[in-house]
Amino acid sequence: MTTIDEVISRMDEIVAECAIKESRVGYFAILYRQVTIRVKEGILKGEFEDNPRMEKLDVIFAKRFIDAYDAFMNGQSPTKSWKTCFEAANNSKHIVLQHLLLGINAHINLDLGIAAVETVDGKNINSILNDFNNINALLSELVDGVKNNIGTISPLFRFLIQFAKGRDEILVNFSIKLARDGAWKFANEYLLHTDKPACIDMRDQIISGLAESMVKPGTRLSRIIGIISFSEWRSVSNTMKQLDQVAKKAVA
Q1: Global pTM?
Q2: Whole-number Å distance between alpha carbons of 243 and 96
Q3: Which of 145, 186, 196, 252 has the CA that lies 20 to 30 A from 204?
């Protein structure tokens, strides 16, 4: 897999597989497919500082999700961050937001820093900073758009936001900007680390811990999530269709 068109094609397959299997992994796959499509449009329009390099970054970045998905589906073990995300997809009590943020958590907090280092391939990592920020801005734009229009999928979502306002709940206060900054710091650490597998493992331990906090929030918030999940009840494939429409409108 070397081109963004190949990535989009594989993402189409994953979305279709998830719809057939009624797998909630499809929620993140739909969101991320739309990010990839938006990156392709940006490359064609010359929006990035280095458009060929952005395609390389996008492919390496996306491949980490795709490889993790393939590994899990084949009974192998991906990183703990992705394993937590994929295992949570089997739980009907989690709300759409949880599934989306579990994927974003693994992909930005763990995968993005690794992808940035592999993209520059030993060259000055600061040369990619602007486009590193650009891809995060696109993801943030899409996530904010989905949150603002998620009422059709999650009628009681606003209630959750109001409850958690001002509280230290990572589930609803997850910040892509903070994740981006952490991912950049990790990228610099990973670049210089002499034992890269060990570096990834240490980072994975931390990020999988954040994932557990999203899966198991506080008792009071868990009760509210239970109410919201009931209001979201419908087939996974139908939710995916609605989420796809919301995601497309978010970048229109």
Answers
A1: 0.90
A2: 9
A3: 145
